[in-house]
Write a structure and sequence with these properties.
The chain is α+β, with helices and mostly antiparallel strands and 741 residues long. Helix content is 50%, strand content 23%. Helix 2 packs parallel to helix 6, helix 5 runs antiparallel to helix 6 and helix 14 packs antiparallel against helix 15.
Length: 741
C-alpha cells in the first residue's frame, strides 16, 4: 500500500504505462507468493517425510545397537561360564547373578536368563520364582516377525541368535542368545520391546513434533530447522550410544575386578583391549599392551604350536576353543595359562575380533608336576618312613555306628613297631588283629572316617603293651588313615618326671617354709637390734650435747669439733635405726585391703608439703578418681615417699612439675608419678630401690636412702610391680601396677 500511494502521488491516475506497471508488479508478487507457498508446502512435506524417515531410522538403529550390545554381553557371560566349568552349577549361576546385579545404569526391565540342556530355567533375574520352569516352547521370531524356531530348538542346536523373542507370558522382547557349548546351556539377555520403544519414543517424539510445527509456521527457516532436526537426531543417537557405553563400562569394571587375564585382539592378532591382569602376567600395563602382537608374548617353545592351533580354529570357523600355553613377562617369569577363546566372524566368514579369557594355572601345573615327581618319593617315603602307617575302611552297624574296620594297606614301619607281618594284617579287621583293642580307638577312628575331621591323640593298646602317638585323617569317604609312633619310652620318662616333680614340689615347699622362718627370724632380729640400739644412741647424743654445753668455754676447738661429729654421727645413726624399724614394721604388718582413691591421698600429701614449704611453686597435676585395692595406710606411706622424692629432686628446676596419672595396659591399669627434676642415669636404675643406696650428693639433696626401699617393700607385699624410667636433667617417672587394679 505504501508503494501504491507513492506512485499515485507522482503519476496521473489515467496513465496507461502506470497501469501496466502496476499489473506487472502484481503479477510478479503473485508468482513469488505462489512460489513461496509451493516452497512452503514442499518444505512442510519434506520436513514431515524426512522427520518420519529419520524418526523410524533412529528407532531401528537404537534397537540394533541394543541387540549388538546384548550380543556382546551374552557372549562375555557365556565366556565367563566356560571359564568356571570346574565350579558347581549353583555356584556358577550365583556368581553370574551377583555380577549382573552389580552392573550400573541398567534399565529395570532388562534381565538375564540361563537355560540348561533340558530347556529349564536356571536363572531369571527379573522373575526369580520362574526358575525351574520349562521354556522350550517360547518362540524365536525372524526379521519378518514370523516364527523362526523355538527356544528348545536353539538349546538343542546350540545356536547364537539376536532378534525378537516371545516370552512365556506372550510379551514381545528383543533378546540375544549365546550358547555355552561345554554345558549345553543358553545365555539370554532380554528387554521388553514395548518398554524399549516407549523409552525411545518419549525421547524422540517431542523433537520431531516440534520440528514439524516449527517448519509449518516458520517457512523461511524450515530448511535450517530440518538441519537442526538431523543434528538433534544425531545427538539423541550419541546419547543412546553413551548410555550403552556407560553400561559397557560398568560391565568392564566387573570384568577388571577378576584376577583372570581378559584380552581382545583384531584379525591380525594385535591387542585392542587388555584388562589389569596384564600387570601381573606380562609386567606391562594395559595401555602398553595395545597394538602389540599377542603371539610375541607367548613362550618361544609354545609360539609355533599356538599359531598353528589358532589358524586351525579359524579355518574350521570355530566359535569357541580352549587351549593351554605359557606366557613370558618382561622379567622372564613364566606363567601357565588356560585360555578360553571366542571368535567373532563377519558375514563373509572373516575374523573380526577374538575375545580371550585366560586363567593362571601355574600353581596347579606346578602341583601336578610336584605330584608326579613325588609319587616315586612317596613310595620311597612309605617304605622308609620311621612312623607306622595304616589305611582302613570303617565298618558300621545298621544304625551307622562304627563297630569295626578293615585294613587296606600298612607300611613296613607298622610291621616293625607293632610286630605283626603285613600278610596277617591287610584284609583283616582291626578286631581280628587286636581282639582286646580298647573301645576309644574305634570311636576315634570312626569319627574321623564319618566326619572327615582329623584327630590327634595318645592311646594305649593292651594287645601290644605299647603307648602310641596317633594322627588320624580321612583320605576318602568312610576311610581313615593314621600315622603313629611308639612313645612307650617317653611315657615311662613322663611318669618318672611326674614323680620327680612331686618330690621337687615337696622339697621346694619345705625350703620355702624354712626360708619364711629365716626371714621372720631376720625381721625379728632386725626389729630387736634396731629397738635395742636406740637407747645407747640417745645416751651418746645426749651426753655429748651436755658435755659440749657445760664445757663450752674450757674446751679447745679440736675437742668441740670431735664432740659435734659425735653428735652428728649419733643423729644419723638414730635416723638409720628409725628407718630399719620402719621397714621392719611394714614387713610385720598384716594387709587390710580396701578400695582406695589414691587421687585423694596424693591431694592431701601435696597439701601438707605446700604448707611446710610455702616458698615452693610447683605445677601439680593429679588425675581424678584413681582407684586401686590395697592397704590404705601402706599406700599412703608409699605415695608420701614417691611424692617426697619428686618434690625433693625438682627443687633446682625453673618450672617444676609433678604428675600423678594412669595408663591402660593389656593386663589392667598402670599408675605413674612423673616429675621433670634432675633425673639420673638409667645405668644405676637397679640400685635405686636398695636401702641406703643414693645416686646424688647428700649435701645437694638430703636423705638417707630408705624411702624408695620402703616403697619397693610395700609394693612387694601387695604383689605389685614397680619400675622406673629416667633421663639425666629431664626427669623421672615411677610406674607401679597392681594385679586386678
Amino acid at each position: 500500500m505504501k508503494d501504491s500511494s507513492y506512485r499515485d502521488n507522482k503519476r496521473p491516475a489515467n496513465n496507461p504505462t502506470r497501469q501496466n506497471t502496476f499489473k506487472e508488479n502484481f503479477r510478479k508478487h503473485f508468482e513469488l507468493t505462489k512460489l513461496a507457498i509451493i516452497l512452503a508446502a514442499f518444505s512442510i512435506c519434506a520436513a514431515i517425510f524426512i522427520s518420519t524417515f529419520s524418526y523410524q531410522r533412529t528407532i531401528n538403529d537404537t534397537l540394533n545397537q541394543h541387540l549388538i550390545f546384548y550380543s556382546k554381553i551374552a557372549g562375555m557371560i557365556a565366556a565367563d561360564i566356560g571359564e568356571n566349568l570346574n565350579m558347581p552349577d549353583k555356584e556358577i549361576v550365583y556368581s553370574i547373578e551377583r555380577k549382573w546385579k552389580k552392573i550400573k545404569n541398567r534399565p529395570s526391565d532388562e534381565y538375564l536368563c540361563i537355560v540348561n540342556e533340558d530347556s529349564k530355567l536356571l536363572l531369571h533375574t527379573s522373575i526369580p520364582s520362574s526358575v525351574g520352569n520349562i521354556v522350550a516352547k517360547n518362540l524365536i521370531l525372524n526379521k519378518a516377525e514370523q516364527k523362526y524356531c523355538s527356544l528348545g530348538d536353539l538349546v538343542k542346536e546350540q545356536k547364537e541368535y539376536v532378534g525378537e523373542y516371545i516370552s512365556s507370558s506372550g510379551d514381545a522382547q528383543i533378546a540375544a542368545f549365546e550358547p555355552v557349548t561345554q554345558k549345553q546351556w543358553i545365555v539370554g539377555v532380554h528387554r521388553s520391546k514395548e518398554d524399549l520403544l516407549k523409552e525411545i519414543n518419549s525421547a524422540l517424539k517431542s523433537v520431531f513434533f516440534s520440528l514439524i510445527i516449527i517448519c509449518s509456521t516458520l517457512i523461511p527457516i524450515s530448511f535450517a530447522l530440518l538441519f537442526w532436526a538431523f543434528i538433534a537426531c544425531y545427538r539423541k543417537g550419541i546419547h543412546a550410544d553413551q548410555a550403552l557405553t556407560d553400561f559397557e563400562i560398568s560391565y568392564r569394571a566387573i570384568v577388571d575386578g577378576t584376577d583372570d587375564l581378559i584380552t581382545q585382539v583384531d584379525a591380525n592378532g594385535l591387542f585392542t583391549f587388555v584388562n589389569h591382569a596384564s600387570n601381573k602376567i606380562w609386567g606391562l600395563s594395559p595401555k602398553d599392551c595395545i597394538g602389540l602382537s599377542a603371539f610375541d608374548l607367548i613362550h618361544p617353545d609354545d609360539r609355533e604350536s599356538t599359531k598353528k592351533a589358532f589358524e586351525g580354529w579359524i579355518s574350521q570357523k570355530l566359535k569357541r576353543a580352549t587351549y593351554q600355553n605359557r606366557q613370558v613377562n618382561k622379567d622372564g617369569q613364566i606363567f601357565e595359562m588356560l585360555w578360553t577363546i571366542n571368535f567373532d566372524f563377519n558375514a563373509a566368514g572373516e575374523v573380526v575380533s577374538v575375545l580371550n579369557i585366560a586363567h593362571d594355572i601355574t600353581e596347579q601345573k606346578d602341583a601336578e608336576r610336584r605330584t608326579f615327581k613325588s609319587e616315586e618319593n612317596y613310595r620311597i617315603l612309605f617304605n622308609e618312613m620311621l612312623s607306622g602307617f595304616a589305611q582302613s575302611e570303617i565298618i558300621c552297624d545298621s544304625q551307622g555306628r562304627p563297630i569295626n574296620s578293615r585294613y587296606m594297606v600298612i607300611n613296613p614301619a607298622f610291621e616293625r613297631i607293632v610286630g605283626v607281618k603285613a600278610e596277617k594284617v591287610v584284609g583283616k579287621t582291626i578286631l581280628e588283629v587286636f581282639p582286646n583293642l580298647e573301645p576309644e580307638w574305634l570311636e576315634k577312628f570312626g569319627r574321623v572316617a564319618l566326619t572327615g575331621k582329623s584327630e590327634h591323640f595318645v592311646a594305649f593298646a593292651s594287645d601290644t603293651g605299647i603307648w602310641f602317638d596317633v594322627l588320624a585323617f580321612c583320605p576318602a569317604p568312610n576311610q581313615y588313615a593314621c600315622t603313629f609312633f611308639d612313645i612307650t619310652a617317653r611315657k615311662k620318662a613322663e611318669q618318672e618326671i611326674t614323680e620327680l616333680n612331686k618330690n621337687l614340689e615337696k622339697l621346694v615347699k619345705e625350703r620355702t617354709l624354712k626360708l619364711e622362718a629365716v626371714n621372720a627370724e631376720l625381721d625379728a632380729f632386725n626389729y630387736s637390734v634396731s629397738h635395742d640400739l636406740r637407747a645407747p644412741i640417745r645416751s651418746m647424743e645426749g651426753f655429748s650435747k651436755i658435755l659440749l654445753k657445760n664445757n663450752e668455754n674450757t674446751l679447745n676447738e679440736e675437742s668441740k669439733d670431735h664432740l659435734n661429729r659425735i653428735i652428728k654421727g649419733a643423729a644419723r645413726m638414730k635416723d638409720l635405726v628409725d628407718s630399719l624399724l620402719k621397714i621392719s614394721r611394714i614387713s610385720r604388718r598384716d594387709l587390710v585391703k580396701n578400695k582406695i582413691n589414691i587421687s585423694d591421698l596424693a591431694t592431701n600429701i601435696f597439701k601438707t608439703l605446700r604448707s611446710d614449704h610455702p616458698e615452693r611453686l610447683i605445677n601439680v597435676v593429679i588425675e581424678k578418681d584413681l582407684f586401686l585395692y590395697g592397704d590404705k595406710k601402706l599406700f599412703n606411706i608409699a605415695l608420701e615417699n614417691l611424692i617426697d622424692n619428686a618434690w625433693k629432686f625438682t627443687s633446682k628446676v625453673t618450672d617444676p612439675r609433678i604428675e600423678l596419672g594412669s595408663i591402660k595396659s593389656e593386663s589392667g591399669v598402670i599408675f605413674f608419678i612423673k616429675d621433670n627434676g634432675c633425673g639420673f642415669d638409667m645405668e644405676y636404675a637397679d640400685k635405686i630401690f636398695i636401702a641406703f643406696q643414693r645416686l646424688h650428693n647428700k649435701n645437694e639433696y638430703p636423705g638417707i636412702g630408705i624411702g624408695l626401699a620402703t616403697v619397693k617393700r610395700i609394693m612387694n607385699l601387695h604383689g605389685s610391680k614397680i619400675w622406673v624410667k629416667s633421663e639425666l636433667n629431664k626427669g623421672t617417672t615411677f610406674y607401679f601396677e597392681l594385679p586386678g587394679a
